[in-house]
Specification:
Blueprint: H1 3-13, H2 17-26, H3 33-39, H4 55-68, H5 76-97, H6 102-106, H7 113-122, H8 124-142
Helix pairs in contact: 1-2, 1-8, 2-3, 2-4, 2-8, 4-5, 4-8, 5-8
Length: 147
C-alpha cells in the first residue's frame, strides 16, 4: 500500500484528515504512529472543527516541518525553506482544490453543530475528504518532501 492509499485508509478508519496525512508519512521521519496521530489530533475539521484551514493541508504542513523545520533558534535558512515549501504547497493545493478552507471544500461549516450534523447525514466528509488526503500526500511526494 502506498502513502496515498495509507492516508485514505487512516481516514476511512475514522481518523481526521490531518491525522491521516501525518500518520501516513510519519515513518519516513522516524515518528511513530501513535505520536503522529496525537500531534495531528486537534487539526481536523479545519482546525478543531472551526472550518478554517483544511486538515489535509495542515497535516501536510506538519510533514514539511518534519523535513525542513528549524531546530536551532538561529537557523533562519531552515525557517525560510520551511515557509518557502509550505507556501508552494498552499498555492498548489488552492489551485488544484479551489480553496484551502475546510468549510469551502466541504460545503458545510463544521463549527456549527447543525451544519456538522447535516454534513454527517449527507456523507460530505466521506465524499470529499479521501481525495483531499490523497492530494496532500501526492503533493508531498512530487514536491520532494518525502525524498
Amino acid at each position: 500500500m502506498d502513502r496515498q492509499e495509507r492516508a485514505e485508509e487512516y481516514f476511512r478508519q475514522g481518523f481526521s484528515c490531518s491525522q491521516s496525512v501525518l500518520a501516513a508519512c510519519a515513518d519516513h521521519f522516524g515518528l511513530d504512529e501513535e505520536t503522529a496521530l496525537r500531534v495531528a489530533g486537534a487539526f481536523g475539521g479545519g482546525l478543531a472543527r472551526s472550518g478554517q484551514t483544511c486538515g489535509a493541508l495542515s497535516g501536510a504542513l506538519m510533514v514539511i516541518g518534519l523535513k525542513h523545520g528549524k531546530v536551532k533558534a538561529e537557523d533562519e535558512t531552515a525557517k525560510d525553506e520551511t515557509y518557502r515549501v509550505s507556501q508552494q504547497l498552499m498555492a498548489a493545493f488552492a489551485a488544484e482544490q479551489g480553496s484551502t478552507t475546510c468549510r469551502v471544500l466541504l460545503g458545510y461549516d463544521l463549527s456549527d453543530a447543525e451544519q456538522r450534523r447535516a454534513a454527517h447525514e449527507a456523507g460530505a466528509t466521506r465524499a470529499v475528504c479521501p481525495a483531499l488526503v490523497r492530494a496532500a500526500v501526492r503533493w508531498l511526494e512530487v514536491g520532494g518532501v518525502l525524498d
